[in-house]
Amino acid sequence: MKIIVSIKQVPDTSGKVAVNPDGTLNRASMQTITNPDDMNALEAALKIKDATGCKVIVVTMGPAPAAGMLREALAMGADEAVLVSAREFGGSDTYATSQILAAAINKIGVEDDDIVLCGRQAIDGDTAQVGPQIAEKLHLPQITYAADITLEGNTVTVKRMLEDGYMTIKTQTPCLVTCIKELNEPRYMSVGGVFEAYSKPLDTYDYNTLKDDPLIDATTIGLKGSPTNIFKSFTPPQKGVGVMLEGDGKETCEKLAGILIDKHII
If residue 209 lies in a helix (H) or strand (E), which one and from where to where? Predict the structure, then answer.
């Protein structure tokens, strides 16, 4: 049994978000992190590995520096890593990205008892589309928004979060599950894990590696194969300085009411 975890390197949105003059994100000037929901997916895989001894393989699509993120995943306990990187893949939207990642997972191979785990969504796009699209292209049953995962033999039981509660779904492996932050608390890298990370396999799949897969076609990958694109990105205007009201409860309430009346809010 193995678990394939799809992770993504994303801009750290807790800092300053830089935007180019043409409205696109200036990713080169921004710090990067592993997408938070993907960390929960990785932790879920590592917990299953702790219990069963299965193999965990992490895969990402991105530029060469994303290999550093994969080494961190290996240091946490993953066994192998795959970097999917090629100029032909640049500019892919969610549809094209899922085509490429599905082809990479095909290359890795999905057996009858395997599981594919993804984060619910990436903080740079917030679409929650890539995981389900991968499942569709691999013809796998999928369960999204997993808040708890239990594995018994080839049966996967997932507690799925809804807007107003939870539902429990069971499916058979192979399957794909997307994970949310409520699922677990990701572990830290260990010192020993950091040393071991550089002796574990990290393969690179370029265009030539995947071009024979039916999913890889010039019309379905990269910028040309993306049916959607970002028209414009911009930094939201900075909020004005707030007004602090001082005094006792009655006095401040009267001041606040006066301000709201002046602004014709009440």
Answer: helix 207-210
**Overall pTM > 0.85:** no
Q: pLDDT by residue (tens digit) across 115-147?
A: 999 999 998 878 999 999 999 999 999 999 999
Q: Dihedral (C-alpha) 62, 20, 91, 102: value to the nearest 10 degrees?
A: 40
Of 33-47, 174-188, 242-256, which range is least confident?
A: 242-256
Q: What are phi and psi of 198, to 5 degrees?
A: -85, 0
Contact (CB, 8 A) for 86 and 40: no
Q: DSSP 3-state assignment of 21?
A: coil
Residues 6 or more apart whose Cβ sits within 8 Å of residue 153: none
Integer CA distances (angstroms), 28 to 11, 32, 35, 232, in order: 9, 9, 17, 17
